[in-house]
Inverse folding.
């Protein structure tokens, strides 16, 4: 459609490159802007094995207070031990993770 080296193909390529670079920043912004509350309904651990070895996976299942949807969040061992089933949690705007309410 475009001749090699044409100005339109360069503009299109530049726009695609900008979109690829901007997308991760947009997704992080959306995640940081979200606000929700919920309750820890389950805690799970399991062992995963891959080419790098074995590692423990710690997961909290949190039920969203508004939607009722249960989401699984992977956390490190320290965060896993901070929460108990039945704890209320909140995700504040501007923060990446959730805290006890």
């Amino acid at each position: 459609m475009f001749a090699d080296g044409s100005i339109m193909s360069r503009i299109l390529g530049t726009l695609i490159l900008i979109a690829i670079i901007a997308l991760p920043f947009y997704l992080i912004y959306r995640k940081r802007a979200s606000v929700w509350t919920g309750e820890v309904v389950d805690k799970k651990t399991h062992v995963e094995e891959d080419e790098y070895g074995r590692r423990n996976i710690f997961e909290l299942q949190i039920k969203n207070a508004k939607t009722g949807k249960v989401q699984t969040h992977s956390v490190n061992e320290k965060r896993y031990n901070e929460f108990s089933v039945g704890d209320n949690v909140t995700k504040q705007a501007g923060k990446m993770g959730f805290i006890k309410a």
Remarks:
- The chain has a mean pLDDT of 89.
